[in-house]
UniProtKB/TrEMBL annotation:
Belongs to the ABC transporter superfamily. SMART domains: AAA (SM00382). The keyword Transport applies. This is ABC transporter ATP-binding protein. One of its GO terms (molecular function) is ATP binding. Residues 2-227 form the ABC transporter domain. The keyword Nucleotide-binding applies. Residues 294-326 are annotated as: Disordered. It comes from Pseudokineococcus marinus.
Amino acid sequence: MIVAEHLTKRYGGRTAVDDVSFTVEPGRVTGFLGPNGAGKSTTMRMVVGLDRPTSGRVTVDGRAYADSPAPLQEVGALLEARAVHPGRSARSHLRALAATHGIGDARVDEVVAMTGLSAVARRRVGGFSLGMGQRLGIAAALLGDPRVLVLDEPVNGLDPEGVRWVRQTVRHLADEGRTVFISSHLMSEMAITADDLVVIGRGRVVAQGPVRDVVGGVGGASVLVRSPRAGELGSLLERSGARLERRDDGALVVRGPDAAAVGDLAAGAGIAVHELTPQQSSLEDAFMTLTADAVEYATSPSPPAGPHGSGPRPAGPGRPDEEARA
Ligand SMILES: Nc1ncnc2c1ncn2[C@@H]1O[C@H](COP(=O)(O)OP(=O)(O)OP(=O)(O)O)[C@@H](O)[C@H]1O
């Protein structure tokens, strides 16, 4: 399990990660979503001890990564800018890494096979495509058979087969009871890969929880209703407390009651209904709404209260967006 508590990272005057708290549970795939520069990589680097928090703390299975006696066996990480000697073969790179952790060659051959690198394992890493490099990075992360995996944008540069392979691999690893924390900016991919989400915008957590709750909490579920007496039905629904959007084509988008409740209300009033369709906003919509909120709050002089309870919170003031890294 990964537990981050009030994790904050400042680089000079810039706050990259701002009072971030979340839990990544074992046996589940947790997606870490956010736009470019939101603070995902910085957070992940702090999880594996490559960056020190300015304040707050993060523990992996109860202790700071730096205190771990056998880090590779506890946490497997794929992070950006992995240093691999270009002249080495994939196999010798993995062997060298394994040797420093007392891991035998048999395990190297195992992860090479698991990651689909067998055919290219003796080739120089310098000639690898981006996708092959990603597979090699994942192979290195799996080397120590760790309980916890931290993968920063693992599907970056992979072809569709590779993307599917990552999805199946992380699912399998989570099903074995491991903790899997995986960052991505691909919402659609996370919708089918992750069980839980931590969504970050401008260094702050704007939502977290099971995928369905995060998506449902933003604009959330609605019911599309068509009726020849839409005006009358609309008034009736509003009087019962529903929130309503009247579309130009005459349809009503109803929030609050579910489809059954809308249908019952219409039936009770003897109003015919020609369509009654439950709708879920997509993860993409949810993400746009959540991260747009974060941007709005950052530029608003007196930010409004978050519309989703303890979910979205104001981002820190005046932080410049997307500047070059120091
Ligand atoms: N070493 C550093 N020195 C100064 N600023 C940094 C450093 N590392 C990151 N930042 C800044 O911190 C913020 C968060 O960056 P980070 O790379 O964590 O975001 P990200 O969500 O991983 O983005 P991306 O998807 O683009 O990689 C950015 O504004 C970035 O420029």
